[in-house]
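Board notes (copied after class):
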Amino acid sequence: MVDNKAIGIIGHFGGKENILDGQTIKTKILYDELKQSTSWNIIKVDTYYKSKNPFKLLWDTIHCLKTTKDIIILVSHNGKRMYFPLLNFCAKHFKTRVFHDVIGGNLDKYVIKYPKFKTYLNSFKINWVETEGLKYKLEDQGIKNCEVIPNFKRLNIARVSENLFQEPYRFCIFSRVMKEKGIEVAIDAIQSINREYGKTICELDIYGKIDNGYKEKFKKENFLV
């Protein structure tokens, strides 16, 4: 039975683990905001269980599709190849409204590699991307239903400490640690300033999980600033 006050979220919630990668955090933030801001029945489908408990994932997916016509999906890599054909079918034959909240900034490359993605994405109600650049790239590939929604997060405003305005000035990055996130650019900037002044005038704190493909270089380069 379809619940008109229900909405599904298909994404990586991390099960009961405290997983801190960007995809999981983004999925949880969206869920929490909808929970706080609406009275909707929010149906979670946690792709964490793809390998941990595939029968649970299958059951939750079927339940979600049967219960609501509105689904938000946040998936990456294998999740796209698994869910996009299914949701494309549901959008065309069961009038399911699919709101695709894009993870990462390389969706255009998937469209080039997998031409069927163009059909899938255009069958969705909307594709929310984080940057104007990705929107333009997808439009170049024939994806016309894109809208830019930057990343967001509810934060408690901290008191400004006078120590913030004393040397060394402290900067921080909260992100997955990988080259594509601009980690090396930030490090180079801090090191350049310190070299110019001949002392440690700035410090950079990096918070986040080091990407598996970047661990070796990160340790080899001994990125300490």
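Comment from the instructor: The two ends are 58 Å apart (CA to CA). Residues 162-221 form one domain.
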